[in-house]
Design brief:
By secondary structure, the chain is mostly beta strands. It is built from no helices and 26 strands. The strands form six sheets. Strands 10-11-12-13-26-22-21-16-19 form a nine-stranded antiparallel β-sheet, with no helix packed on it.
């Protein structure tokens, strides 16, 4: 499988167009000369066609997260999607994650990739633009509906590396409480424990999985004292919501900017927490995630 490497402004990135335009590495050159991994990475030999692999980030379209039973109704019709998480009876993470992408353009520190999907339910073009500049990495998704009017959603699923002592902070209005299949039952104030607004040690929330609405400002701060690294993650355009998952071994955290809540197709009663976009033929939904790294200078009273 092909691997394309971009290097600019102290960042080094690898992307694989043949495997879902997944990022397979992202690192940053610390002022002391160390090259520090921002995302988890893997060799191309670890990529198994149509199977999850330990990549750094993958795109989600035409929906993010889960659809209960892989089915939903729209405009008086019932639709069924493949169940690719059978243990949870869900369709998950869309159709572009493992697809081959075309290279539209490539330059120094930038690449644009395209996946054309023509399915029985969804027909779309997904463009992923990767740009490294002085501000850091910008990863932009733009999905164009090539079929009849349908509900669309997008998201990005990055895996950020962690060491002992890592802390995270962001503000939001509401947080999901979910069933055993991680499908939302209700939303509660985001300050309900764990309260991330004041910052938390990620070692205290191993295996935590929740969805956040009212993510304002659209900023997450991740500090890794063991690496001397501070990371900022921002969401723009359609990325109004945030999904957070902390790995059970505390070695990674998924900070996922998304356009809608899980199973928004079937949970109209929770629509105020992140609904889908109804796209007519030719209409576009786009979102950008920005990642920037800097040297960690010290801690304030809250650990940041």
């Amino acid at each position: 499988m092909s691997r394309i490497t971009l290097s600019a402004h102290g960042y080094e990135l690898a992307v694989n167009p043949d495997y879902g335009a997944n990022l397979t590495a992202l690192s940053w050159r610390h002022p002391d000369g160390r090259l520090i991994d921002i995302l988890r990475g893997c060799d191309d030999t670890a990529l198994i066609p149509s199977e999850p692999s330990p990549v750094g980030c993958f795109p989600m379209a035409p929906f993010a997260n889960r659809i209960d039973g892989g089915s939903f109704s729209h405009a008086g019709r019932d639709y069924a999607l493949p169940i690719n998480r059978p243990q949870d009876r869900c369709a998950i993470h869309g159709f572009s994650r493992f697809a081959a992408f075309e290279i539209l353009s490539q330059g120094e520190g930038a690449i644009s990739l395209l996946h054309r999907h023509r399915g029985d339910v969804f027909a779309y073009d997904l463009v992923q633009d990767v740009i490294i500049d002085a501000a850091g990495l910008a990863l932009r998704l733009a999905v164009t509906n090539r079929g009849a009017t349908m509900p669309f959603g997008i998201g990005l699923h990055p895996y950020f590396r962690l060491e002992a002592g890592a802390r995270l902070r962001f503000n939001a209005a509401q947080r999901s409480q979910s069933d055993e299949r991680y499908l939302p039952l209700r939303f509660v104030p985001a300050q309900t424990a764990p309260d991330l607004g004041g910052g938390i040690a990620l070692a205290d929330v191993a295996g935590f999985d929740a969805h956040y609405s009212g993510w304002e400002p659209r900023l997450v701060e991740l500090d890794r004292p063991g690496a001397g690294l501070s990371i900022k993650v921002r969401g723009e355009e359609a990325f109004s919501n945030l999904h957070l998952y902390v790995g059970p071994d505390r070695d990674f955290v998924c900070i996922e900017p998304v356009s809608h809540m899980p199973d928004a197709h079937n949970r109209c009663e929770l629509a105020q927490h992140g609904k889908l976009a109804m796209l007519g033929h030719g209409e576009v939904l786009a979102g950008t995630m920005r990642i920037s790294a800097s040297e960690m200078k010290g801690l304030n009273a809250n650990g940041f």
